[in-house]
């Protein structure tokens, strides 16, 4: 018997479907490797940033606690410190005026250091909390506060460098080298925190987009099922 035309069409369709399915499976398996590799690299980079920022946070907490304690003790023992400085400057003609100026300078410096170290201590704790919970919004206080300190320190460094240049060139070179090194270290630390902030914000926005897309897919699936019913 000769095969019917329907049998021939059925066999050809079965073969083509199998071939297309196999090709699609191989293509999907090959393309699935690239997102996994990119995800592994991004996760590894994110872990390195989290470790670096955690170290920065603990160093900031240690330094802030030390400054907080020292400035508090300086405020408490201000009279003894002024008396010691006055004893060292006992040959000065205007000893009383010098004592008053020293007291004002010590009190202003100690009070500013006391409050700034307290704020910095709190901000570094919030930074560590943001690293643990992976929330970029908790990194914003650290970035804003240290950005303000960075700008203030640059203005202070420029003022002191220009003033020392008018007095002695050797002092200018020493101050310029010291300030440059401190600013480079501060810039490197700030870049680490800012890179983590950008990575967490990018991941959060990607998760939000996936959530919106999944909600749209659910709505579309529900509408299709309702239309079929």
Give an overview in words.
The longest helix is centred in the N-terminal third of the chain and has 72 residues, at about 5-75. With about 230 residues, this protein is mostly helical. It is built from five helices and no strands. It has one domain. Residues about 1-35 have low confidence and may be disordered. The chain has helices spanning about 5-75, 80-90, 95-135, 140-165, 170-229. It is elongated.
The fraction of residues assigned to DSSP E strands is: under 5%
Number of helices: 5
Biggest β-sheet, characterized?
none
Task: Please tell me how large the radius of gyration is.
Answer: 33 Å
Mean pLDDT: 74
User: Spans with pLDDT under 50 lasting ≥5 residues?
Assistant: 1-34
Structural class based on helices, strands and sheet pairing: mainly alpha
Oligomeric status: single chain
Shape: elongated
The overall strand count is 0
Distance between the termini: 45 Å
Reading the helices and strands in chain order gives HHHHH
Range of helix content: over 70%
Count of discrete domains = 1
Can I get a quick summary?
This protein is mainly α and about 230 residues long. It has helices at about 5-75, 80-90, 95-135, 140-165, 170-229.
List keywords for this structure.
mainly alpha; disordered N terminus
Write the SSE topology.
Elements: H1 5-76, H2 78-88, H3 95-133, H4 140-167, H5 169-228
Helix pairs in contact: 1-3, 1-5, 2-3, 3-4, 4-5
């Amino acid at each position: 018997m000769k095969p019917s035309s329907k049998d021939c069409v059925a066999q050809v369709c079965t073969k083509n479907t199998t071939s297309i399915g196999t090709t699609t499976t191989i293509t999907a398996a090959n393309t699935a490797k690239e997102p996994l590799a990119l995800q592994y690299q991004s996760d590894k980079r994110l872990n390195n940033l989290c470790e670096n920022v955690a170290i920065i946070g603990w160093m900031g907490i240690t330094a802030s606690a030390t400054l907080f304690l020292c400035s508090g003790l300086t405020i408490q023992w201000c009279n003894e410190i002024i008396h010691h400085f006055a004893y060292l400057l006992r040959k000065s003609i205007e000893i009383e005026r010098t004592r008053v100026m020293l007291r004002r300078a010590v009190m202003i410096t100690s009070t500013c250091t006391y409050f700034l170290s307290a704020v910095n201590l709190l901000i570094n704790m919030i930074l560590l909390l943001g690293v643990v919970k992976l929330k970029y919004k908790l990194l914003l206080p650290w970035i804003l506060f240290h950005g303000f300190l960075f700008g203030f320190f640059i203005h202070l460094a420029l003022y002191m460098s220009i003033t020392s240049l008018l007095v002695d060139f050797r002092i200018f070179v020493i101050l310029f080298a010291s300030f440059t090194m401190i600013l480079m270290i501060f810039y490197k630390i700030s870049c680490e925190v800012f890179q983590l902030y950008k990575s967490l914000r990018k991941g959060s926005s990607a998760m939000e987009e996936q959530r919106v897309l999944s909600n749209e897919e659910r709505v579309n699936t529900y509408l299709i099922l309702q239309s079929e019913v």
